[in-house]
Amino acid sequence: MIFIPIIGVLFILFLLILFKIRGDKEKRLNKELFEKEKQKNFSEAIRIVEQLIHLRPRFAAYYVDLARIQEKNGNLKESIKIFQKMLEENISSSLITKEKIIENIVRLSLILKDYEYAFKNAWVLWKINSKNVTALTALGRLFASQGQLDKAGEFLFEAIKYEPDNPESRFFLGLCLLDRGDSKNAVVHLEKAYELKNNDKNIIFFLAALYIHVGRKERGLELLSKIGESINSVPQKILNVGILKQGMPSFNLEMLKSSVSDKKIKIRNVDELLGLSKEDLYGVIKKIITKLGLTIKEELKEESKDVFSEINFLCYDKNNSIVLFSFIK
To answer: Rounded to whole angstroms, how far apart are CA atoms 288 and 273?
Structure first.
C-alpha cells in the first residue's frame, strides 16, 4: 500500500534533480556565452549556443542568438538558414513572432543583394502585416527597380507614415523622388535620413550629389569631403550604381532628356555633368552609350565646333545598324 506512493515521490524527486541539473548547465552555458561574445570569440559562442539549443530545441530565443552571432561572424547565409529553419519547424514565441523572423530574412537578403529572395519574403511579410515598415520599404525598392516609380512612392510614403524616423525608408523615398525628377522633395527626405543617420556613407553621398544638382555646391562638397569623395566621382558613381542592383538610384535616361528617332539619339546636358573635365565627361558619355546597348564605331570631330558644346559618336546598335549619338551641352 505504501510502496506505490514512494515510487511516485522518487520519480518526482528524480525529475526535479534532472531539471535542476539542466537548469544549472543552462545558466553556466549562458554565462560562458556572454563572456565569449564579449571577447568576440564567435566560433566558441556558436558552439555554446548549439549546446543550448540541444538542451531546449524549441526555445526560439536561442535560435535568434545563433542567427545573431552567425551574422556578427560574417556568416549571413547561415543566419538566414537558421531563420528559415524556425519558419519550417514553427519555432516562435510571443516576442519572436513569424513576422519578426521574416523581417530578419528580408533584411539579411538585402544585405547579401539577393533581391529576388528578399522581395519574395517582403510580399509574404506585407500580407501578414500591411503596416510592416520593413516590407513596405523593400517593396518600394522593388517597384523602383522596375521603373514603377509611382507605385514605389506609394509604398515608401506608407513606410514613413508608420515610422517617420526610419532612415532607410527616408533614404529610398528620397532616391525614388529623385528618379521622378522631384529634386525639391528628394532633398527633404534625404536630409531627414541624414539627420537620423549622419554616419551612413550612402546617405551622405547622394545627399551631397543632390545638393550639387540643385545648386548648393558648397554644402555638397563639404559632405563629399566628409567621406573622402570629390565632385568628379558624382556622375560616374550615380551611373554605376542602379537601384535594382545596389539599392541606389539609376542614372535615369529620362532625367537626361533623351529622345530617339530615325537612328539619331540626342541627349542634352544636366546639372550633374556641368563642370566636369573633358576626360571625365567623355567617360560618363561612353557609359551612357553602353547603357543604351550601343557600341562606339568612331567619334565625329569637327574643327569648327567646341567639343564641350556638342559631342558626336557613330555607333552600332544590336542589329549592327549605324546610330548617331549626340551629346549637346
So the answer is: 12
Judge whether 309 and 328 are in contact, CB under 8 Å.
yes
Measure the CA–CA gap between 27 and 13, rounded to whole angstroms: 21
Return d(Cα 167, Cα 176) in angstroms, integer: 14
Q: Which residues pair with 296 in a beta bridge?
A: 315
Q: How far is CA 216 from CA 140, 210, 284, in A?
A: 28, 8, 22
As its CATH architecture, domain 23-128 has Alpha Horseshoe (1.25)
Rg (CA), the chain: 28
- Is there a common fold for 23-128 and 130-251? yes
- Cα dihedral value 121, 124, 128, 130, nearest 10: 90
pTM of this structure: 0.66
pLDDT in tens, 176-217: 888 887 888 999 999 999 999 999 988 998 898 888 877 788
SS (H, E, C) 249-262: CCCCCCCCCCEEEC
Residue indicated by cell numbers 517597384: 143
The domain spans of the chain are: 23-128, 130-251, 259-328
Q: What would the grid cell of residue 3 be? A: 510502496
What topology does CATH give the domain 259-328? 3.30.720
Name the maximum alpha-carbon separation found in the chain.
119
Locus of grid cell 539609376: 250
Q: Is residue 315 a contact partner of residue 323, using CB atoms and an 8 Å limit?
A: yes
Calpha distance 246→267 (Å, rounded): 25
Q: Which residue has the cell 543566419?
A: 79
Pick the more confident residue, 138 or 325. Answer: 138
CATH of domain 130-251: 1.25.40.10
Beta pairing, strands 322-328 & 264-268: parallel
Provide the pairing of β-strand 310-316 with 295-300: antiparallel
